[in-house]
């Protein structure tokens, strides 16, 4: 009887010790703020009024020289995708993907996503952070493979690309890239 009680106690203790730190921490679930990007005091998200982009952030010289950051146009419908790089194209802190049928991004329809090249997420993760930091900060991901860790809320995603050293190489806040591709006919 004593041996069974000791074995039972030992099993309980070992089970408790084997749980990951992620489960033991108080990690808050994703909120709308996790999908906000603050750049130069301007909060940008999928509800940001694109008409204000020129007044709030202007366009970089690189983007102006490159058709205001135009990167693609739908083959059938002419729907455009612009990627605006801030502060510039060579060393961007953020890149904003804007979709629309007009001739310039400030007249675009919506923001499809934002790349955080040298800017942190609202929880402080940035390019160069370690995989373990992502897990400690955001918890167990919705999707994970060797190359990326993805967190989702509704249709929005935060995607961390990681290298073989388990370091973050890219961060994307995806508001609706799938819709963007469909809108362009891709």
Largest sheet: 8 strands, antiparallel
Elements, N to C (H/E): HHEEHHEEEEHEEEEH
Uncertain ranges: 4-22
Spatial order of the strands in the main sheet?
Answer: 3-4-5-6-10-9-8-7
Query: What's the total number of strands?
Result: 10
Radius of gyration: 21 Å
Share of residues in strands: 25-35%
CATH class: Mainly Beta
Classify the oligomer.
single chain
Query: Which descriptor suits the 3D outline?
Result: globular
So, CATH architecture?
Answer: Sandwich
Distance between the termini: 68 Å
- Structural class, from secondary structure content? alpha+beta
CATH fold name: protein yfey like fold
* Integer count of domains: 1
Average pLDDT figure: 87
Helix content: 10-25%
Number of helices: 6
Task: Describe the overall structure.
The chain is an alpha+beta fold and about 190 residues long. It has a single domain (about 40-185), classed as protein yfey like fold (Sandwich), CATH 2.60.460. The chain is about 25% helix and about 30% strand. It has six helices and ten strands. The protein has helices at about 1-20, 20-25, 55, 60-65, 130-140, 175-185; strands at about 35-40, 40-45, 70-75, 80-85, 95-100, 110-115, 145, 150-155, 155-160, 170-175. It has an eight-stranded antiparallel β-sheet with strand order 3-4-5-6-10-9-8-7, sandwiched between helices. It has a two-stranded antiparallel sheet with strand order 1-2. A hairpin with a 3-residue loop joins strand 7 and strand 8. The protein is globular.
């Amino acid at each position: 009887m004593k041996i069974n009680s000791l074995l039972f106690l030992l099993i309980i203790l070992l089970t408790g010790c084997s749980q990951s730190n992620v489960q033991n921490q108080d990690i808050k679930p994703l909120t709308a703020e996790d999908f906000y990007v603050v750049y130069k005091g301007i909060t940008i998200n999928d509800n940001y009024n694109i008409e204000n982009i020129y007044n709030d952030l202007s366009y970089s010289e690189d983007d102006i020289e490159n058709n205001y950051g135009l990167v693609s146009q739908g083959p059938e419908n002419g729907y455009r995708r612009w990627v605006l790089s801030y502060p510039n194209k060579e060393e961007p802190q953020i890149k904003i993907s804007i979709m629309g049928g007009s001739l310039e991004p400030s007249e675009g329809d919506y923001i499809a996503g934002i790349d955080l090249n040298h800017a942190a997420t609202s929880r402080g993760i940035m390019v160069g952070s370690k995989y373990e930091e992502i897990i400690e900060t955001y918890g167990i991901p919705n999707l994970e493979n060797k190359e990326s860790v993805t967190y989702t809320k509704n249709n929005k995603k935060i995607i961390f690309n990681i290298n073989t050293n388990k370091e973050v190489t890219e961060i994307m806040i995806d508001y609706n890239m799938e819709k963007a591709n469909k809108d362009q006919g891709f």
